[in-house]
Amino acid sequence: MQVLDKAPQGWPCLVLNADYQPLSYWPLSTWPWQEAVKNVFLDRVDVVSSYNECVHSPSLTMQVPSVVALREYVAQNRFPAFTRYNVWLRDGFRCVYCGADDVHNLTFDHVIPRSRGGNTSWENIVAACAPCNLKKGNRTPSEVGMVAAHLPMRPTMHQLQSQGRRFPPKYLHQSWLDFLYWDVELTS
Predict the structure, then answer these.
(1) Can you give the residue ranges of the HNH nuclease domain (predicted)?
(2) What is the pTM of this model?
(3) Which one, 24, 57, 96, 113, has least CB within 10 Å?
């Protein structure tokens, strides 16, 4: 991961909750610069930091926001949506059976097959690589001699965001660093 001194392409803006914590680590909560400017004018956010670049209108010149904080707190106590992406994030983008981390080869796997009454839910779906999913087929892991690294469960938003900290984006702007915490070493 790189820490950039100049504005990244497209001037993304880091969005913080009213408590100055990121709304999301994975994906990192950012807005396009246009959305940030719109929310500044709608008085929904406070500008915390800006890029050196400016945008102009016929009657106004404004520095492009690099970090904004919402004026109203958004509660993070709901459960995350059940999506393929969130299942993969929960499982660390690894196959729960063999540990392979080939993101392009990850699939959904029903621990209890649907043909045997298994449903599509947090508690029955895991991330599996295509070879393990094919090997398991329409059987349970124990019938094939496979052992999952962990049992599937519905994560809280806190657990999913904590997991997301393990996967920092390819770049961060210098102005964002005071508001982010990553579980890995950052390099400039």
Answers:
(1) 82-134
(2) 0.74
(3) 57
